[in-house]
Specification:
The complex is a heterodimer of chains A (about 170) and B (about 400).
Chain A: H1 7-18, H2 24-31, H3 35-47, E1 69-77, H4 86-93, E2 98-103, E3 110-116, H5 119-130, E4 136-143, E5 149-150, E6 153-154
Antiparallel strand pairs in A: 1-3, 1-4, 2-3, 5-6
Helix pairs in contact in A: 2-3
Chain B: H1 10-13, H2 20-26, E1 34-35, H3 47-58, H4 71-85, E2 95-98, H5 100-112, E3 118-123, H6 129-135, E4 139-144, H7 155-161, E5 166-172, H8 184-196, E6 200-204, E7 229-234, E8 247-250, H9 253-266, H10 272-284, H11 286-309, E9 322-323, H12 334-345, E10 347-348, E11 350-351, E12 363-366, H13 371-386
Helix pairs in contact in B: 3-10, 4-10, 5-6, 5-9, 7-8, 11-13
Classes of the chains: A alpha+beta (about 170), B alpha/beta (about 400).
Chain lengths: ~170, ~400
């Protein structure tokens, strides 16, 4: 279900998607609106679940004992009458180990991202939980070796300002 | 034998060095400095543009191009100028690719000035205009755009400055350092002066794409002005390509061919890999430009309101990425203000007098820096102003 928003509302959503920590006061200045107008606008975006949640991108590989493992799993599924893929998708995403579930075009149906403490833990989840779900035909598990870029952000980018300090 | 005191030419000896250099030196060795003193985008050149240069090197395009630049690039420039400014130039004879807009201004002045010819230079402006007029043998005649006129030069001021020796008017809109932009009607009124006295307009349109509220009009697009306009622009600001040194100049055929003679002897041609990059930028750079423009607009709004709130009144600039707040209320001159702000709060701004005497009483703050840096800079400036 999608809705029509004003260009200003869309711009506010874009700004917050990049930096959710901006205050309403700062947003108001950036958008040339009153703090109250921004407050109303953000509330609307939140109420309508356009802004679903505010997140931080944490690089867990930097923290000892919290590196964990991520797997991308291609899942083939038999769709069900009336509910299609939704029913199986729901049975998969209810597990807290599952971080994302996408319906895909191509040679498999669902792309499932799973996180765990160890390869064993993920393997156990796939064999015991995921592949036993009614409707799941097959799974192919790919372990992530290194994350370079996530949601538009490069993890270890050299973002130093390389400009000279003063120029005409 | 007489001993020479200096081998330097007199007119070079007396040439004043740019006032900006001093502030650059003052920051040496300082840490935790936030600079609002930078006259270039904080973005890195879009990747597809950088990649085009890399690919051109891989393909072995490492030789000279035609003096005027790759014909493909000149065609793309002519198309761009036609599409966005509605002025058509012949890419073969009226477009020259230059080493930045700076070179374009230099060869334009050298091409049109006889010794002693006068050029009306509207200040505050980019630091190079008056010195380049002098170096070309001309005489810069300063016309000051005033704060009370939102830094827009008034046609009467130009009219009053015209003499028989006046050859051209130099204008940069949107302006560095004020961010002020002339409206179409204001340009038409200036064009009347130019037409009446047969003057050229040397129009530096390097910030044409960085305009936030209204549509941009090129001086060359003003009715009847194409034959009296030298349109200077480049890739530095809108495509974040300052370090590539790539600009262009469009002018009537005879002027263009005159400039080309100087360019071919002095420069030969602009860097070949930069030209390949620029071509990619013109072909596929619109969406990157739009993203950058949107981000600059947000930051402009933020910095203008923040400066006004802390008691540094600030005209809301229509374009470029500079604000030019008045610091008169602090009782300091612009150099003292900038020096103390740097020493006490480690924020770099450029004193307004670096852009001409009429810039005194102001400082230039560039908002081509990340929102987080801007927020911190505004916090520090507020603290600085409050404790005065």
């Amino acid at each position: 279900m999608s809705m029509k928003l004003t260009a200003t509302e869309i711009e506010v959503a874009e700004i917050l998607e990049k930096d959710a920590r901006l205050t309403n006061d700062e947003l108001a200045k950036m958008m040339n609106l009153s703090v109250d107008q921004i407050h109303q606008m953000v509330k609307k975006l939140e109420d309508e679940k356009v802004i679903v949640r505010y997140v931080s991108l944490v690089d867990w590989t930097k923290i000892d004992g919290h590196q964990g493992v991520t797997a991308m799993i291609d899942v083939k599924v038999t769709p069900k009458r009336d509910v299609g893929f939704n029913d199986v998708a729901e049975r998969i995403y209810r597990h807290k180990e599952v971080k994302s579930v996408y319906l895909m075009s191509g040679t498999y149906d669902l792309s499932v991202q799973v996180e765990g403490q160890s390869v064993n833990e993920v393997a156990h989840f796939v064999s015991q939980k995921l592949s036993t779900i009614d409707g799941v035909i097959s799974t192919t598990t790919h372990f992530v070796l290194k994350k370079f870029k996530h949601d538009g952000t490069v993890y270890d980018s050299d973002d130093r300002d390389k400009r000279i300090v003063v120029s005409p | 034998m007489p001993i020479k005191t200096s081998y330097l030419a007199k007119h070079v000896r007396t040439l004043k060095p740019s006032g900006i250099r001093k502030f650059f030196d003052a920051t040496a060795g300082m840490t935790d400095v936030i600079s609002l003193g930078v006259g270039e985008p904080d973005f890195v050149t879009p990747w597809n543009v950088r990649e085009a240069a890399i690919l051109s090197l891989e393909d072995g395009y490492t030789s000279y191009t035609a003096n005027a630049g790759l014909l493909e690039l000149r065609e793309a420039i002519a198309k761009y100028v036609d599409d966005y400014y509605c002025v058509s130039y012949d890419p073969e004879h009226e477009v020259t690719v230059t080493v930045g807009a700076s070179e374009a201004i230099d060869i334009a002045l050298r091409a049109i000035l006889d010794p002693g010819d006068e050029v009306l230079v509207v200040e505050p402006c980019f630091v190079s205009y008056a010195p380049l007029v002098t170096l070309a043998g001309g005489v810069p005649v300063i016309v000051e755009s005033k704060k009370e006129n939102d830094f827009k030069v008034q046609p009467e001021q130009l009219e009053n400055a015209v003499t028989e020796r006046t050859k051209a008017i130099m204008i940069c809109s949107p302006n560095n350092p004020t961010g002020s932009m002339l409206s179409k009607i204001e340009m038409e009124r200036i064009a009347e002066v130019a037409k009446k006295h047969d003057l050229l307009i040397l129009s530096d349109e390097i910030y044409a794409e960085l305009v936030y509220d209204e549509l941009y009009t090129s001086f060359a697009a003003i009715d009847g002005m194409k034959d009296q306009t030298i349109l200077v622009s480049g890739f530095s600001k809108d495509l974040a390509m300052t370090g590539w040194r790539l600009g262009f100049v469009c002018a009537p055929r005879d002027i263009s061919q005159g400039m080309l003679k100087i360019h071919q002897y002095a420069i030969m041609c602009a860097s070949t890999m930069a030209q390949h990059a620029g071509l990619e930028g013109l072909r596929n750079g619109r969406s990157d430009m739009a993203d950058m423009r949107k981000s600059y607009r947000q930051r402009r709004n933020y910095i203008v309101q923040s400066l006004n709130e802390m008691g540094l009144p600030c005209y809301k600039p229509e374009g470029a990425f500079y604000t030019f707040p008045s610091i008169e209320a602090t009782g300091m001159n612009s150099e003292t203000f900038a020096t103390r702000l740097l020493q006490e709060e480690r924020v770099v701004v450029v004193p307004g007098n670096a852009f001409g005497d009429s810039g005194e009483g102001h400082v230039r703050c560039s908002y081509a820096t990340s929102m987080s840096q801007l927020q911190e800079a505004m916090k520090r400036m507020r603290r600085f102003v409050e404790k005065l």
